[in-house]
Amino acid sequence: MSDEDLENSKNKVQQKKNYLEKVLHKILIESCFVFNHKFSNKICIFIILSAIVWIVLFILFDQAALPGGAYFSLWILIIFSHILGFICELVKMPSLLGMLITGILFKNVPKLSIIGNSIYSATSSLLRNVAFCVILCRAGLSLDLDKLKTMKFKILKFSIIPCLFESIIFAFIAVLVLKLSFKWALLMGFVISGVSPAVVVPGFVIASSCIDNIIAITGHSLMIGIVFNKGEVWWTLVQCPLQILAGVLFGILVAFFLNIIRLDHKISKVSLRFTVLFLVAMIAALGFKKINFATAGPLAVLTLVIVSKIVWQRVDEYQDLDKENILLNVKNLDDLFSKIWSIIFLPLLFCLIGNEIDFGKLSPKTLGLQLAVLAVAIVFRLMASFVSVYFDKNLCFREKIFFCITWIPKATVQAAVGSIALDLAKLYQLPTQIPTDVYFH
User: How many CB atoms lie within 10 A of CB 198?
Assistant: First the structure.
């Protein structure tokens, strides 16, 4: 065979290969609607991933992943939370509303309540606590320390005054209208005083919202220690500062320990920091709760995240990274927490909260009074917010009103901490209705 014939043969083989590649491209890519439409592509990916998750659950947990089992029920709740959340987004409503409705439907609709009732209370409480850890980690990471230093008086004023004012006003009104004991009313006040960083606008309001949430969570943790104290009053007064000190010391020491061992590995530095921070945060939150130091847990997580962020920035500076890459590392770490929050823990948290709402046990009159107390407290919060920005000469009147309105949103913090008192009441075998006072026997 001549060289010319050999060359022609090679050209024919190459032409056939190119033809087959074009045919496969037409069949697999251009002719398939899934890859041509972004919306249908998302639906396809969602269905495939949902099926894969269920298969993994079935392999690991067998009967518990079948209809009637706890893991199957959780899988169904998360799937429908995403679906209803997406529908709410289409009609310009918050996605978390759809997730909350999902839990309510699977708890109160007769045919669907089989799913809601198959989830154990202890499992629901554990998952909500893990979601709370993610919220605390995001709050600590989103705190802009540079902005806090340059605008510390404005940020502290805009966070402390509305938060404490709303908590105390709510407590007094709840005592008068709902006939609660003051300690229970103040506990509820700190629950509602937090704001949602995911809803408020960027700027110094984001930094203020982080401080506001830290104050609300700290106040709530302190009141949990007081309300559910099993000993004498003097021991409560001693125990609260001890728990605060234990939480702060744990966070600082562990953060510096993580710096000593230097989290450098073959895998991404940000991924390793995320993994270690998330796991240690869960150890802090759940571990302190295990030894009845419930107040120390949230403070330990917040301190751990904030100090770790500072230390890791210093480490990156020591390794001669420029400021842009240092900030990028922090942003990538925050993005990882945001992804697991939006994909897993946001739908999980709100559908589980909705699953705790039983309309059969709700009194319309009591519910109306509670909503009225909440509305009055929000009005007083608006007034306190306006006072905190009134003397700022850099803001016009409309901007001041706008900042006050952005200080209203409430969602994630309330969903995370609102059920803690109920979980503890179940743990200590107390009445699950909020009493006028609580006595331990």
Answer: 19
